[in-house]
Amino acid sequence: MGVSDLQTSQQHTTLSESEERYRDYFENAKDAIYLAGVAHDFNNMLTAIIGYTDLSLRKVEHENPIRRNLEETRKAAERAASLVRQLLAFRSTPCQQKPSGQPRQK
Predict the structure, then answer these.
(1) How far apart are CA 65 and CA 4, in angstroms?
(2) What is the CATH number of the domain that holds 42?
(3) By the 8 A CB rule, do 50 and 77 touch?
(4) First vs last Cα of the chain: how many Å apart?
(5) How far apart are CA 5 and CA 31, in angstroms?
(6) Longest Cα separation, the chain
């Protein structure tokens, strides 16, 4: 194998590694976009739950035993909404950098 053949082989390996990095990056990006869509849909459902719970709380007397259940429902929905916000914030952070031309460390 001559020097020219060795250089061609190294270029091919580098190209294959770059292609693999880009493929991984775009696969992860596709998954992140899908998960963000699910999180937004879930957040919309939680908004409805919180809204209807608030409307019910306005109509229920303080002494009514159902009021405590409604308050707990609202707290749980608020915790879930907070979790969705954290997921969306995590998705928007630059934790997944675009692949560079540098070879990956193995």
Answers:
(1) 84
(2) 1.10.287
(3) yes
(4) 26
(5) 39
(6) 90
Q: Into how many domains does the chain fold? A: 1
Domain contains 3: no
Q: Token pair for residue 3?
A: 């020097």
Cα(58)–Cα(61) distance, integer angstroms:
8
Give residue-wise pLDDT tens across range 24-49: 888 888 888 888 889 999 999 999 99
Q: Is residue 101 part of a domain?
A: no
| pTM of the predicted model as reported, rounded to 2 decimal places | 0.62
Most confident of the following: 15-19, 23-27, 101-105: 23-27
Identify whether the C-beta of residue 92 lies closer than 8 Å to the C-beta of residue 40.
no
Residue 2 is assigned to a structural domain of this protein = no
**Token output for 25:** 């990056």
